[in-house]
Amino acid sequence: MTLLATTSIAAVSLYAMLSTVYKSAQVFHARRTTISTTPAQDIETSPVPSVDVIVPCFNEDPIVLSECLASLAEQDYAGKLRIYVVDDGSKNRDAVVAQRAVYADDERFNFTILPKNVGKRKAQIAAITQSSGDLILNVDSDTTIAPDVVSKLAHKMRDPAVGAAMGQMKASNQADSWLTRLIDMEYWIACNEERAAQARFGAVMCCCGPCAMYRRSAMLSLLDQYETQLYRGKPSDFGEDRHLTILMLSAGFRTEYVPSAIAATVVPDTMGVYLRQQLRWARSTFRDTLLALPVLPGLDRYLTLDAIGQNVGLLLLALSVVTGIGQLALTATVPWWTILVIGSMTLVRCSVAAFRARELRFLSFALHTLVNIFLLIPLKAYALCTLSNSDWLSRGSVAVAPNVGQQGPAKMPGRATSEIAYSGE
């Protein structure tokens, strides 16, 4: 047996053992629940918190923006609700001007048009400094939320120990292509396995940007750190959601997941856009994993296993694949053990997801294994080697839209993104 074959077998065997322990623990802890941790009597006697919804937008498709704002206008919330739309120097700012005219008579809406592009964080902060609500809900401009999302997230935030809470992410344009269907399943697994398990211990490691609520008092205390994040002396301009979540955990707050608070966001429908998005997310994850390491000892041991499973597991899988390919190329022998182990684990993982979601479509998520091995692993290796690069990889485009004029917000199906808008993990 060659050194390459031995290394591949050893690496994939270690990966299988680690992944089995990690995924078993993850599924065990990932119990979906909408029950608040706040005692019922405290909820009944405490006042309903006011909520400020912040929507930063940059070159957003006018129809997608219209759908987003319409979903916010239709929120069924008993407390005071204010909506702050901030245009971050878009080249198609007429779209925002048109929406400002649509909601001119709705006192809940406030529109701010920045003279030049300053980045998502500063756009958010421009709205935060104008607002005064007890809670802040960040919503991406390509996201629509169900009518009860504000109520359900605010209910979870009635516990003063909770600093942030996120809802469940879905792909609004999942029917567009095989890739959008795959991403929709990827989101379900990320929310209802990874985040749900982390929430069991009050430590969701990334409250997803498309729909995440924060306690205003906590956010204000962290605002300087959030705005001035640096990596190797350079401003870090993406990964806002993960960074802010880690800051909340570092400050001693709990971060939660509310699976019944449904948000649908437009996802990439082409592989090029998807890979550019994944490259940004990978850089953000690697950077903020370092920030999260000091936090882990104060959390449940499962969170340490979670970090090891995601990072060491990825390394072992990459090593087994690379050595397996090397074995095939140099010795003309097929790495059957590596193929068998990865194939078996993929089948088990997809079957468990299909059972938990009660949807057979998750069996087709096996395709994601091929995407992961041949595209995402090389991309993450590149991300690790280029962590200092803070390019969004997407800011040159503008959405050219039909004339929205004075028409009211319409209910329309989600459409594919050209990756021109701000989007969070």
UniProtKB/TrEMBL annotation:
Compartmental location: Cell membrane
Major subcellular location class: membrane
Keywords for the protein's UniProt record, in alphabetical order: Cell membrane, Glycosyltransferase, Membrane, Nodulation, Plasmid, Transferase, Transmembrane, Transmembrane helix
Membrane topology: Peripheral membrane protein
Transmembrane domains' residue ranges: 311-330, 336-355, 362-383
Entry-linked InterPro entries: Chitooligosach_Synthase_NodC (IPR026463), Glyco_trans_2-like (IPR001173), Nucleotide-diphossugar_trans (IPR029044)
Pfam family, one: Glycos_transf_2
Glycosyltransferase 2-like domain ranges (all copies): 53-219
Function (record text): Involved in the synthesis of Nod factor, a sulfated N-acyl-beta-1,4-tetrasaccharide of N-acetylglucosamine which initiates a series of events in the host plant species leading eventually to nodulation.
Family: Belongs to the NodC/HAS family.
Official protein name in the record: N-acetylglucosaminyltransferase
